[in-house]
Write a structure and sequence with these properties.
Layout (H helix, E strand, L loop, with lengths): L6 H7 L5 H6 L8 E3 L5 E3 L1 H6 L7 E7 L9 H14 L4 E5 L4 H5 L7 E2 L2 E4 L1 H5 L5 H21 L6 E6 L3 E3 L9 E3 L10 E3 L1 E3 L4 H8 L3 H10 L1 E5 L4 E3 L6 H7 L7 E5 L4 E4 L14 H10 L2 E5 L4 H16 L5 E6 L1 H7 L12 H19 L5 E6 L6 H12 L5 E4 L1 H4 L5 H11 L15 H13 L3 E4 L1 H12 L7 E4 L19 E10 L4 E6 L18 E2 L5 E2 L3
Parallel strand pairs: 3-16, 3-17, 4-15, 4-16, 8-11, 17-18, 18-19, 20-22, 21-23
Antiparallel strand pairs: 1-2, 2-14, 5-6, 6-14, 7-12, 9-10, 12-13, 14-15, 22-23, 24-25
Helix pairs in contact: 4-17, 7-8, 7-10, 9-10, 12-14, 13-14, 14-15
Amino acid sequence: MGSVKSDIEIAQEAVLEPITKVASKLDITDDEVEQYGKYKAKISDDCLKRIANNKPGKLILVTAINPTPAGEGKTTVSIGLAQGFNRLGKKACLALREPSLGPCFGVKGGAAGGGYSQVLPMEDINLHFTGDFHAITAANNLLAAIIDNHIQQGNELRIDTRQILWKRCMDVNDRTLRNVVVGLGAKGDGFVREDHFVITVASEIMAIFCLATDMADLKKRLASIIVAYDLDGNPVTAGQLKAVGAMAALLKDAIRPNLVQTLEHTPAIVHGGPFANIAHGCNSVIATKAAMKLADYTITEAGFGADLGAEKFLDIKCRKAGIHPDAVVIVATIRALKYNGGVAKADLCTENVKALEEGACNLLKHVENIQSYGLPVCVAINRFTSDTEAEIDCLKSILAKINVPVVLAEVWAKGGAGATELAEKVMELAEEKSEFRLLYPDEMGIAEKIETIAKKIYGAGNVEFTDAAKKQIAKIESLGFRDLPVCMAKTQYSLTDDQKKLGRPEGFTFHIREVYVSAGAGFVVALSGTIMTMPGLPASPAAYNIDVNDEGMITGLF
């Protein structure tokens, strides 16, 4: 038996179709794509305008249980599911997020799928791709430079240098940049002050980019960004600083969705990528709506578990975009559920039905969460070779008791062939009449929205706000932002704000330490626990294993 091929080896052996041929599967003409080489393209504004009145197809949301070191494979299942639809002769399209360089070089790796369910060209997508993230980084840092220059040139807007909210960004994990001092040196080098960096995917511009509907909406949102407060406590915006036009110019090409393909040549629109633990975790509204207008079935995903990504997808993206899924798939693995049941990572390949039964409570909570939105749901077991029939039968039995369908997905090993049964079940669910409802109304107060999410989605007994958070909420509401949805920033590894608490904790205290408004994005961010908006690198970063040979072939990227 030969050795198992790595994801990058499988990707590099694939024969790709010209991107114009992939586009034709969605009835996009050659003139409606702007090619970045042979296998990547931007969908043109002309195409987006042409399809604006098309009847949208079905939208399928893929989410998951809380991530564990055992892996869940949500993106891989999403890609495999789209390929499964394609094998059934359906017109399907993926709508996925772009990967961040932070995880690629850090601990998580890339986000282009795995095995025989990947989007290609894998190396490009995981690295520079079409430059969207670089454009967002440049726009973010241009605004930062304009703020400091405004202060240097006389500070006409009377910005309080102790209350500058806007942070610089870069798309690499670098903990040393979380807290820095800028302006050191001579008088002409700027005003000395404390500053901060976030990772690009946590920038408000990334959120704006992903929630904007077109260039006019993008510019309106950019203008609304609150960058600081003045000496009287009034907000100062990017619009007041005359930064909007230049920022929009940097984002002119980036705002167009990117078209690529899967290993089986299924069209994939990959665009935008805010983190789900510190941002709203969904690809762009423009991309999702375009896919829905171009295909009969659009398969999209929300970051991390249903407590984070799916909640934000539904309560922020769907609320703002006027869309909702026709069916939801929750991805789980036998291994991850055993981990939630107390099994050590080293022992996950050993059969343990009892631990699976105990750990399944995490999956059941996520199922309940999706059902609370009135959406039809099924569970996809992302199968591993170590899964035993007894374990699979046990999980099916657990879900049968609550009348939730469960389907085995063998997409890593078999690609679309391993997801045709799942695709058939999803099509069946998508025809059911759903009664989609949001978790909370717009008019509910910010603290009450936070408490609703914590109690109903996480299972908390109560929410504890720091004095600072209480003052921040009062300030935000006084400025007229009470009606905005809440974007919770918390650990992805647990339903609580403590990543060590696995399974399904109940009645715990959830802690909110900081609250701020992202006025351009149109939501209020609530930070819990020790969540960081600039991650750090691990002891042995993935970057150590990445290389490129004399022929330009990249190795070590997974």
